[in-house]
Amino acid sequence: MPDNYYIADQFTLLSRLMDIHGENSFKTRSYSSAAFAIEKLPAQLSDLPPEKFVSIKGIGDAIGKKITQILETGELPLLREYIEKTPPGVIEMLQIKGLGPKKIATIWKEMGIESIGELLYACQENSLLLYKGFGEKTQTNVRETIEFYLKSQGSHLYADVEAYTLALDKTLQEAFPQETFALTGEFRRQLPIIDRLEWVTTTHSEALIKYFTAKGFHAEEGPVKEKHHTLFLKDPQGILINIYCPAPGYFYAVLFRTSCSTEFLEEWTGRTGRSYLDQPQKDYASEQAIFDEAGIHFIPAFQREQVYIIERAQKAAIPAIIHQKDIRSIIHSHSKWSDGSNTLEEMASACMDKGYEYLVISDHSKSAFYANGLNEDRIREQHKEIEELNRQLAPFVIFKSIECDILNDGALDYSDNILSTFDLIIASVHSNLKMPQEKAMHRLLRAIENPYTTILGHLTGRLLLSRPGYPVDHKQIIDACAANLVTIELNAHPRRLDMDWRWISYALDKGVMISIDPDAHALEGYEDVKYGVLAAQKAGLTAERNLSSLTLMQFQEYLAARKKAKGI
Fold first, then answer.
1. Phi and psi angles of residue 288, each rounded to the nearest 5 degrees, phi first
2. pLDDT tens for residues 271-282?
3. N or C: which end of the chain has fewer CB within 10 A?
4. What is the pTM of this model?
5. In degrees to the nearest 10, what's the CA dihedral of 411, 415, 418, 423?
6. Contacts (Cβ under 8 Å, ≥6 apart) of 243
7. Cα 72 to Cα 51: distance, rounded to the nearest angstrom
């Protein structure tokens, strides 16, 4: 039988959802007042006859009937109606301190944001500052509250748990200096989304249980399985951790097994006849010894994902993949001209300090009014500033670019006359993201075929753990980019990482260039290049096939050759 707290919660939620939908304020306040009155009652409503409800101050006849509905069915039909017409992510926003129904209504109906993850991304892009009622302090508070809230939700972005993971790894090494610890699992494979952290260790499980329990972790030991103990942990913030404690002689066999995807491991077993689930033939001195025994060139853990890599490694050594030191430029960045936090000069100076050779500034186009997009007059003003800065900062170069909205019909946001004034164009979809594949493909293909489109930005529009992105035929998009000399962006923001790394190998096979771009809205956004590199490594991208790894001279030659080929 529902108790008073449950009934009060139903009316509180109803009141807040009605506020979000802009309903009559008198009605919403009546439900809120009823919830307050019910919470303070000394007796349970379930113990009272329905006719007594109306005599309770703050309830009345209409709400009394709704209380009866809850007591008889366990739910409030009117609340169910509002829940059904409200996106789940919008309802979840009510959990975020500092966001009342009125602000949530603005976020949903004016900004088009329908999930907490999208809202966090908007905070990181300074988008909230452009709307009434959202100052810098409010935006900062919302961002910090969301980040704290997401920590307890189970799955995490790699970037969000990276510092925690490395710090815990260091702590374990220091606490057990005579033992060996090795990170494994999803983190070692550099997956963009991490469900749990995993280690392999020579330490006894009993010692680990004692250590972690003293630090407030929940700890329990699983059954002995596949020649090792598994310790299951949950830290005080809810992060899940597995620690594998192999018997002597099994350390590298277990490290290898836990560093492979299920698909990779099944293919490996089929090709080599060695599963590493049973007792190995010998005590391996390293993972390299496992590959040597199988006659397969070494495959780094971050590439032990898709099965095709095993056949390649049987034939030849894996090519040297891209590293962060190979990035020579910042492509795709936003300044104060649109929704960025820094001036052009500040962004260029930060690039120079980091040793980059050039900067591609790509503020939003005019249709992105919510991001202070540039109209034609402001484009001309920005170009004058870029030209003056290039004279001052030479040999460093700022290239004139724009993140040009792909409109509903696939056209770009400016006329050809305006597009021709830029050094390059990044074309991206930002609006009307809820579309069927046929619509998405029409928009993207037409934009790709525009001769001014140099780079296709964040291919699917996804936000990891927040928004799946619009459906596309990846092969058809990649084929079109190959035919039209269009580079595909690997947006390095850890909440995007779009295009997905799983499609990069197909793009490389088709001769398409990839561009690892941070989509930076502030100087600290430059650091996101790292996460794009980690994703690109999984696909085997080399520096030679990454646009942002070209030297200044190579980049200038690339742009000139492309314009000549496209006749523009």
1. -55, -35
2. 888 776 555 556
3. N
4. 0.82
5. 30
6. 198, 199, 200, 201, 205, 208, 230, 231, 233
7. 15
